[in-house]
From TrEMBL, chain A:
It comes from Oscillibacter valericigenes. The chain crosses the membrane at residues 36-58, 101-127, 134-156, 162-181, 267-287. Belongs to the binding-protein-dependent transport system permease family. This is ABC transporter permease. It is found in: Cell membrane.
TrEMBL record, chain B:
This is Dipeptide ABC transporter ATP-binding protein. It comes from Oscillibacter valericigenes. PROSITE patterns: ABC_TRANSPORTER_2. Transmembrane segments: none annotated. Coiled coil: none annotated.
Amino acid sequence: MNSSARPATSEELDFLSVQKNSQFRETFLRLCQNKAAVAGMIFLVFLILLAVFADLLFDYQTTCVDLNIAERLQWPSAEHWFGTDQFGRDLLARVVHGSRVSLSIGFIAVAFGLVVGGILGAIAGFFGGAVDNVIMRLCDVFLAVPMMLMAIVIVAALGASMVNLVIALAISCVPTFARIVRSAVLSVRDMEYVEAARAIGVKTGRTIFRYILPNCMGPIIVQTTLRIAATISNTAALSFLGLGVKEPQPEWGALLSSGRDFIRDSGYLATIPGVCIMLTILALNLLGDGLRDALDPRLK
Amino acid sequence: MSEPLLRVEHLKKYFKSARGMVHAVDDVSFTLEAGKTLGVVGESGCGKSTLGRTIIRLQEPTSGSVFFDGKDVSKLNRQGLWEQRRQMQMIFQDPFSSLNPRMTISQAIEEPLALYKICPDRTSRQKRVAELMDTVGLARRLYNTYPHELDGGRRQRIGIARALALNPRFIVCDEPVSALDVSIQAQILNLMQDLQKEFHLTYMFITHDLSVVYHISDEIMVMYLGQVIEKAPAEKLFANPVHPYTQALLSAIPVPSLHDRRERVLMTGELTSPIDPPAECRFSNRCRFATDHCREAEPQLLEVEPGHFVSCFLCER
C-alpha cells in the first residue's frame, strides 16, 4: 500500500471539515422521511403541548370541577365541542386536563419500568449463569401474577393515589422489559464485534451500553410504545375500579368508564375519550416504528 | 537466540458440555520469534481459533501458561491484562460481524485510541484515525461511513486498522481472509505482509487455506483435534510432510495442471470425538498407517530434523 506516499488531494485534507451531522440530528432527519412517524410525532407533540398549557385553555376549577346542571348531557356543539357530561361540565376541557394525568402516568411508569427492567435484563443477558437465573426467576414470580391483579394489590396496599398508581404500573412493567431486553441482549452478546470490543480493551459497562444495547433497540422501542399504550388503558381500568384517579379529577380512563352509564343516549361521552386513547396509542406506535427504523444505520 | 516473543507452554482449554469435557485445545506448546509469522492450519473444529483466543485471553485457559515477552499473560489480573492488550491484538474472521453496525468507521478505529488515551485530544485522535486509514488503504472520504456501506475487503481493512491502532507487537489473525473473494484475499494478504515489515509485527495466522498459509508463513503448525501434530518451517513442511494427516492435507491442494496429477491421499473413518478423547493417537481412526500401538498410547511431539517437530509413532522408530 503506497497510499501514504502519494500527495493528498484537497478533498482528502478536508475530511475533518466535512464533519458528519451529530447522531441525534441524523436520526431526526431520517425519521422525518417517514410520513407515518411524522404524523404520529406531530400528534404527540400537539397532545403534550395541550397537556402542558391546559390551564391556559381551560380553567381547571370552573370547567372541570364545578357542576353546571343546567347544561348537562349536551351533544357536541359550537359552544361545547365535545359536549358536556352528566354534571354539565365541558368534556373538551376534561379531556384536555385528563391528558395531563393519562400521559404522565403512562410515560413515567413506562420510563421507570424501562430503566429498571432494561438494566436488570441487560445484566441477566450479558452475564448469564447464576445472575441470570436469580433475576429471571424473580421476574417469573412477578409475571405469574396477572399485571392487573398486581397493580390492584399494590394500590390497595399503599392506598389509592396517583403516585401509588404510577408505582404499581411501573413495577408491573419491569418484568416484561427485563425479559425483552434479556432476550435481545442474548442474541447480540455472542456477535464477533462484542468480542472484538473486548480485544481492544472496552470495559464491560461500555460494551453493554455502546455495543450491545444499541443493537437491540428494535424490540425495546416497539415494546416501549406498546407498553405506554397498555399503561394508559390500565390506568383507565384501575380508575374504573376506583383505585386510580378520583372524581372529579379527569382522566381518560375514568372519563371513558363514567361515560359508559350514558352510552345509549349520549354515546359521545364514552366515544370521545376512547378515541383519544386510541389516537394516542396509534401515534405512539407509528412514532415507535419510525424511530426503530431511523435508529438503524443499515436502513438508510 | 534471544528469548522468543511468545512462548506457549502446555496450554489447555476445555469446554464443559452435556456429554463431558470438550478438549478444544489440549496441551499445546510452541514458541514464536518476534517479526515472524506462524501459520496455524487444521480442519474446522480442531481448536485453532480457540488457541488464538486463549493466547490473547479472550477466553480463559483451563491450564498452562502463555509468556509474552517474558511475562506470563495467563496470570495477569484484569488491569494487567488490559495493559497487555496494547501489545496483543486480534483480527477477526468475519468482517461482516466483527464491526459494530452502529458505529462509523472512524468511531470504530477511534475507540481503542480513546480508551487507552493514546492521543491527548480529539483533533490529534482524528488525525491518527486518518493516518491509520491511509496505512490500511482506506480512502479518507469513507471517514464517516458505516460498515454496512462497504464491501468485505474494506471492512476487513477497518478491522486491521482497529487492531493496529494500539501499535501492537503481536496480532492473532483468525482466518482474516477466508470470508473474502479470492481477488480481495490477495490484496489483504499483501497489505498484512507490508504492515508486518513496516511495523515489525508478529503474526499468528490461523487459517484452513493451505495456499494462503504457505504464502504468508515462516513456520507452520498443523493442528488436529486440539493438538499440534506437526510444526516446521513452511518450506520444509511443504517439501517433506511427515505426519500422515499433513500428507493428506497437502495432497488436497489443487494443482493447476492437467497432466501433472498427484496421488490424492483420501481419508476414511470417523473423526474422533473431542469430548473426553481416549489416550491414543487421535488420528488413528483415519490413519492409513495406524497400528495397534497407535491405539494404545498418545504420541509425543518429537524433533525429526532441526526445527521440524512431528507427533507420530511412525517417525519415533
